[in-house]
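Sharing in case it's useful to others searching the archive later.

Someone asked me privately for the predicted structure of Serine protease K12H4.7, so I'm posting the question and my answer publicly. Question first, with the sequence:
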Amino acid sequence: MCRHQFIVGLIVSARFAYGLNFHSFGNEFEYLAKELNESSVMSDSAEIKASWLEQPLNHFDTQDNRTWMMRYFERHDLWKPDKPVYLFLGGEGPASPVFLKTGIMYDLAQETSGALFIAEHRYYGKSKPFEDLTADNLKFLSSRQALADFARLLTTIKSKFANSKIVVVGGSYSGNLAAWMELIYPNLVDAAIASSAPVLAKLDFYEYLETVSENFELHGPVGCWDMIATTFTNYEKAFESNESIIALKKQENICDSCDMTKPQNKQLFFLEKASAFMYRSQYGNPRNIKEFCDSNFTSNFRQMDESSLLWNGKSECYSYDFDDMINIVKQIDWYTAWIYQTCTEFSYFQTSSSDKQPFTKNIPIELYYTMCTKLFGPDFDETRVNTGVRDSNILYGGLKPNVTNVVFVNGDMDPWSKLGILEDLSYKAPAKMISRASHCRDLFSDRDDDPEELKQARIYIKYLIKSWIGEGEYRRP
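And my answer, the predicted structure tokens:
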């Protein structure tokens, strides 16, 4: 067995990572969490309370009487009678109360005297129907069940805030959920913000790396893109002979016992290396990309690897052993849960199958199919994944959901925007594209160094929400 240094591309910031590269729907809001630590929020804020709601295990089987407890956070000190209620929908990670202290939802609550809630998604954080995440126990994990959980919570909230308008907010996967709440439960929702929401389930998400490539070509200094292409071409050549593999293992500090001739181990290597660029493209800005290429490129590249030490303690070498990686994933509940959702509902598998990117063709979709079957059993094969993608798009409408009073917001640097709604569905379901913005940046409060386009976008979003809930005059844009 290889001694493990966990793979950056699969683990770092993974709570909001889509697909199986967890640089990319790791925690979208990690920057916000760094600014406002969750423990300090709870200790310094007596107005914030953690609460629990009993939920059915299966909302769609009246013969199943099993229940579990869902966690949510609430804050009422800003609220005035008959004023709005704002609910942030949890996604693929633990819910955090930080959004009750900062961010666009908090700003809206301050400006409209609203109450604030954050709901945790089933199977994540402390909202666990089961401790043991077997495939049989995971069958109750789905967006449809989660939406029903949120609907039940909203029904409870509305019993106490009977005359209040309801606004739901989400980013990334939870941005999908915000839009889909209005679609499935329009009687409970008056308006929604769907930020960076990849509402289209897609099997081979090759456009992700295409966008990463475009960002580095557009915002990197002269020669940056060529340097990336050369680096990955050299990596590919290193796998052509046993001698060059030995040299590569020494150069990259790969464990001696790891067999890099195995296709899946090689594929994990390329995914990990690509994720340094994926991460900066998804969460960064033009300056970050320029600095990454402008300074010591090789040193910057290595830093992403070193950061993964945080996930597995101090280690003497790196391992890309696929089977070892599967065993480690099984020990991380939220990671297992999200992979299950990609295997059964959305796919979002980020591959390098396109010719329009410099990362070679060594991240194939077969890597993800194998991960699904290794984690959950032989039934979770390509056919099962395809069926889940098809059913999700039928249920929710893909890029044409029948919704009103929902604003879809994307940043043009965000690779996930390729699966989002980029043009108005109607004047009551507008789309907003923000220039030079990355994933979910609109959900933050204004910062001094934010570009003017981002600040203006937040003003526009707040204007729409206020007008839809009767807190401001609405004029057709």
